[in-house]
Amino acid sequence: MSSISRRTFVRGVAATPLFAAAPRPTGAPLRFHAPATAPESVTVNWLEDKPGTNVGSTWGVPWPQGAVPADSPFALATPDGAAVPVQSWPIGYWPDGSLKWSAHALPADAPVHDTYVLRRTTGPAPAAAVTVSDRRDSIVIGTGLIDVVVGRRGEALIRSISRDDTVIARDLRLVSLRQTTADDGDERRTSRERLTSDVRKVTIEQRGPVRAVVKIEGTHRRRGRSWLPFIVRLYFYAGASHVRVVHTFLFDSDGQKEFIAGLGVRVGVPMRDEPYDRHIRISGDGDGLLREAVKGITGLRRDPGAAVRTAQLAGRKLPDPATWDQRVTTRLPLIPAWGDYTLAQLSSEGYTIRKRTKAGHGWIDVDAGRRSSGFGYVGGVSGGLGFGMRDFWQKYPAQLDIRGADTDEATATLWMWSPEAGPMDTRFYHDGLGQDTYPEQLEGLNITYEDYEPGFGTPYGVARTTELTFFALAATPSAPELAALARTVAAPPQIVAPPAHLAAAGAFGGLFKPVDRSAPDRAKIEDRLDFLFDYYRDQAESRHWYGFWNYGDVMHTPDVDRHVWRYDIGGYAWDNSELSPDLWLWFAYLRSGRADIFRFAEAMTRHTGEVDVYHLGQWAGLGTRHGVQHWADSAKQQRISTAVYRRIFYFLTADERVGDLMHELVDSDRTFLALDPLRKIRTEPYTPDPHALSIGLGTDWSGLAAAWLTEWERRGPKAAAAEKKLLATMRTIGRMPNGFVTGSGLYDIDTGEFAVAQKTVSVSHLSAMFGQVEICAELIALVDLPAFEAAWLQYCRLFNATREEQTAETGAHFGNLILKQGHSRLTAYAAARLGDAALAARAWREFNATDGYTDASPWRTTALTGPEVLNPVEDAPWVDTNTTALYGLAAIQNLALLPPA
């Protein structure tokens, strides 16, 4: 596929010549009718294999329109009919008020089965429910196993975690290290200051009985300086021994004059046992585990006895030293106590562990490995704290610290940015190259595909979310138990609804069906879909697409000469959701139920929703086009921030943080007052007018519509305004003589209406490729607005039609368009809605024999090794992300909408 130029796109949107009117077909299209009934039960299952450790799980289930009352009760049972407590709540509604999506929570003390049966009936309450007690300056949450005190003000987010009236941990707070120079030379003259969390607001979002959620907001503060606003959610499940922490920080710096030199979560752990009964555990590769005592009695010159040594290695309480070999007992004070440990994962390919007795003394190398799962334990036979960070090595540089384990209170710190890695460098990567004017910048776009503009390559306002877990343990667990906890942190057990139910309920516009290999042609397409996902999964590994800011994204285009992806060439580097790889992955999961696709898509959702979008500042609500750095390009647009890329993950998991991200976008129409997306190519003066904003009917409107739709169906705080604007834009698009073919319209922020334009033609190959297909399918299934549907079906029919057909209906042809394979799904949608067999046949021809991937594509990789490449890799230089995402979406949706070719 030829490279897609933003310049070509924006010129296409801006061009609006007038043509004579031509009538649009007015016949009422055929309509899908949602089933009037829903199944009485749904069998749900774990995403991966049945977990060894149940820590609770939350998941979403869709229901057909009009079939389930909004207040419907639910019950959960094992396959043999035994009742299991469950908490249920609505997270999405159909316009008629019926339930569209329900969310459910499984308690941590529930029996673990391969599957569960969710029924639409009343179920039992949990035996040990989560309790939430409000106090004047704190909130106390009890799970039945632990009690957690959350502070309403001050430095500590969690004041204490107790188990059986014993304080296991206290004063959990956030820490950041701020540095004002970047240390570019050999000589380092830097100073760092430590800032800690300052809690400003605490909200109880859910009170049980199975699941409770507390949201904490604040900043990092020291003396007069406040920076890095944070949003932290604490999750509690009935019967759980742990607290799940979802940590988000917002980068409120321009990244030029101050730098993050460390970012972490720190907690105190009281140490009550004798030093020889205190234990350190740190996870390595896989189930690998470092097992040590603060004061070790193994390997000594004198042997305390086999039973004593075995007990210490197992983490059990040792016999009275009076029973040991006295040659050891009398010399216990002469054995060093190792109080400090550090594991530093400074790349995706290696970590080191070292220890020392105490501050002021030398570090001793312990060992090294490749990829730590990021889990540790400090404590003793009378209790201790397990702590871990998800995606630890994937989001390097990360670090685990244990300090003072030989004292009355140890501290454990999970560093999301390791202090040993050096300052986080977010400065722009070049000096501008003399691109001071719009014409010069457009020339730059023509050579490196980067849309540069001074001052636009700033990280101010981006964010990052990290998941952490803290376990209050009654004693030092066995090695297998600790390995199981480490696996749980790395891949939290997730319950899911099966693909057949997701499809039958009409989820996400009905644009997918379960994988079907029953016919040879379909099996061929399925094999190619598998090939493409497997290739990207393996490329992430072999090309090392990891790191704090990068993990979750993929590259845009390969460099066929260097046998690398174009990581250093302008807009060809990080993809930043260009042409909807997020949707390709989620639709691939919805129809297959594959765990590896879910996890890949989940990481992308976490990344693209946080890192590629601004959450603070003048561009809040806009995302950044693809580039060498995720915030480098000057094109700040709705097409990247769009809620359509977050919706699927949200409804499958009820994740509150992703819900925040979509809610942030409800008022993002106001960003068009702050930034004109067509500023570089306008030929006439333009001043943004809140009552006549120039907004494209493609990538701009679809992004706004996705946010409004999501707020409306979630019944969010701004649902009424969102509904008003969504329906007003739909009505007025339907009134335009050429509907979506018009290209853009003048929008009134107050009324939500577009001014009805004259009959114009302005069509871009990009307009529908950033979620508009998916949003329009959902809207047409939700809202009975025939004129809007007719406008969308016209666009779907005509994009890949002949020039003569385009001209006859709209007054002009659409020019030289590309992405015909990706647009075959528009033809397929029109064919399905209209019951048009000729359109269906045309859609398959467009899919199989236009641009994009075809039978003539190689459909294989080539093994490359050194010295031709740096690392061994399976290379497919004919694969790029634009084509892959569109082939994947077209294949999935065509298979769902059309009969076999």
TrEMBL record:
Residues 492-899 form the PcRGLX/YetA-like C-terminal alpha/alpha toroid domain. Residues 41-119 form the PcRGLX/YetA-like N-terminal RIFT barrel domain. Pfam families: PcRGLX_1st, PcRGLX_2nd, PcRGLX_3rd. InterPro entries: PcRGLX/YetA-like, PcRGLX/YetA_2nd, PcRGLX/YetA_3rd, PcRGLX_1st, TAT_signal. Residues 130-486 form the PcRGLX/YetA-like central beta-sandwich domain. PANTHER family: CONCANAVALIN A-LIKE LECTIN/GLUCANASE (PTHR40081), TAT PATHWAY SIGNAL SEQUENCE DOMAIN PROTEIN (PTHR40081:SF1). This is Tat pathway signal sequence domain protein. It comes from Actinoplanes italicus. The lineage of its organism: Bacteria, Bacillati, Actinomycetota, Actinomycetes, Micromonosporales.
